[in-house]
Amino acid sequence: MEMLMPRFNTDLESAVDCFRPILKRLRIRQEAAGPPVFLSSFPHLWNLNKDTVWVITILKTNLHGSKAKFVSQFHKNSKIMQCYIILDDACYIKAKVPNEIKKAVVVHEFCHFLALIYASLSTSEEKLKTRLKERLSKTVDELTNEQVLELYRLLNNVRPNSDDFSTFEQTKDEHFRLNCEDLDLSYTDLFKSFLLSRQMFDEYFPQDKKNEFSRLLKEERAQEALDLYTNIAKRIAQDKWLPVTFAIRQSIDILMKFYIKRLI
Length: 264
Fold this sequence. Notes:
The chain is of the alpha+beta class. Helices cover about 50% and strands about 15% of the residues. It has a 5-stranded mixed sheet. Strand 3 and strand 4 form a beta hairpin. Helix 1 packs across helix 7 (about 185-195) and helix 2 (about 100-120) crosses helix 7. The longest helix is centred in the middle third of the chain and has 22 residues, at about 100-120.
């Protein structure tokens, strides 16, 4: 199968470019669950499973002890793959669930959705693809209240140069992987990038700020340069519903991977 974006299973930047528009269309900031999102409404995804209608919807209900679930069901006759991110009612009451938790659990369940997409693309044989979808039909992933609190603590206490995300049960690669997808990327990295990606940071780091950051470094004013950079991370945290600690650590990782060689 010829893909419009053939690198989204090997390149993190391509994966974010490809799938972030779906996450944005879910509109998790609104006070009520939104309408279904059809992958067919994204022209750059038209080559993904042409024979199947993919739709993802956010629903809210009383989950009785959990904060979120991911449920999928493939309807063989109509060839519709229905996917649901189900959020507990409390997620829509800020006094009960901070915005940062709501954002984290939605991105977590969105990664399960991506795992399903990647798995469905692992073979070009129609019969095997159908069997795969049937095998994954009605699968459920659930985030209990306790797990959500642990995830929130992790995001608020990210240690420099740590591998906490790759070892924490709800964010490690094995938690999401279905073991039938052709994917060279880590779901751990996908989770972190859909919370805060280089593309998102770049929206807050225009060329004039890059120039200023570079000038401060060349003048050996490293602390001022770092303050400029981390202040941007703090602004993103506020705007995008992210714990400040996570936003700063993820932004530093982005700096080292994408910016530093071009700015020094």
